[in-house]
Amino acid sequence: MPERAQVGYYVHHHGSGHGMRALAIARHMDCDVTLIGSRLPDADYSSTIKALQLPGDTAPGMHVESFPALHYAPLAVDGLRERMGLLADWMRSAWPCLLVVDVSVEVAMLARLFGVPCVYMRQHGERTDPAHLQAYASASRLLAPYPASMECSQMPDWVLAKTDHCGWVSRYSQQSSAHVAPEHGAVLVITGQGGTAFTVDSLIAIARRCPEDQFRVAGPLPASDLPLPGNLTLLGHLVDPLPELLRAEIVVGSAGDNVVAEVAHMGGRLIAIAEQRPFDEQRLQALQLERLGVALGVLGVPAADQWPALLQRARHLPGRRGWQALLNDNAAADAARIVVGTLHSHFGSS
């Protein structure tokens, strides 16, 4: 048994944002941390941060039944059995431990059944269904990786009372762009690993409607053989998008936590496009950003003829001045402090 209490951090595999956030927070913890998931970030892990790779949890032809108390529990899926077994083995061998769950109702309930304390990562969206509320109730603390002013759903008071808001967690700080002026007409379009409604065809049509702007697209897109106009460049996957974020006058991306966090910390002007996600997650986040006046919230990719006016509206956003009151440059460190504090509340600090 380990001499010191340690933290396991379950990382959901959809998109890249969960993994980036986990690594940023783990680097601030003064204890041993194991990131656990099937799509962990590629990184140089330190002596105190380890990785436990899990198999996938799907199988051809599987049938997923719906239960009020569970979101995902298909029968006869080998990978699901293996991953839950590996999680169980880790909790047994790593005891005393705490599990951060970002995110899975079922993993949170497994931790509770093992008697392992849990810090559950909250997300945007209408998450008042029985399964979410059960996970929230079973957790020792809830951690919201966004400012309290971004709360936009009708959560019960008891959920809010056990929630700590650390703020948006970003790889970059406000200082990263403090002395850099963006290029007029530079538009960065980010298509995330979690899927995008953009296609090469739609981007070509948008670029042709906005000939004075230069569109640079970072991230995956469906393959296409169509010729590109001169003001459209496909960059593919970028390990570090910081140089592109710095030069962009306007950023176009999904209304997901990762894009919002990084543009917010850069003080950028954001067109937040709500992609189709469970529980209306991105739709509610996009609408709340618009209400706060810090970004334009758009439901789906607008038609090409709407983009000249949309970009002009984005240029009138307040940028850094608007984001300032919402930011916490110590968000990752504060999140780590909350997790480690919860660990110590259960097991002491030795």
TrEMBL record:
It comes from Pseudomonas baltica. The lineage of its organism: Bacteria, Pseudomonadati, Pseudomonadota, Gammaproteobacteria, Pseudomonadales. This is Glycosyl transferase family 28 C-terminal domain-containing protein. It comes from the Bacteria.
